[in-house]
Amino acid sequence: GVLSTRAGGGTEVLSGPSMACPRVSGAAAVLMANGYSASQARQRLKNTATDLGLPGYEQGAGQIDLGSAI
Question: Which of 5, 37, 60, 62 sits a CA distance of 20 to 30 A from 19?
Fold first, then answer.
């Protein structure tokens, strides 16, 4: 999960595509700033993701490992 702020104040741990999107787009931006094309960044993130042992429809490619992707 991702620690997120609540509209009324405080924080909570959330999960799902809306929580993953900022992490994925940020990681892609880092790779693209280092010379990767968009398609190369996408493939690199998928190839270096850590398998969480869940079905693909639940985890996608897995957990991003930006350190390995760079």
Answer: 37
Mean per-residue pLDDT, 18-43: 94
Angle at 7 between CA 3 and CA 8, to 5 degrees: 110
- SS3 state of residue 24: helix
Distance between CA 57 and CA 59 in Å, rounded?
Answer: 6
CA R_g for the chain: 14
Q: How far apart are CA 15 and CA 21, in angstroms?
A: 11
Dihedral over alpha carbons 36, 70, 68, 13 (to 10 degrees): -90
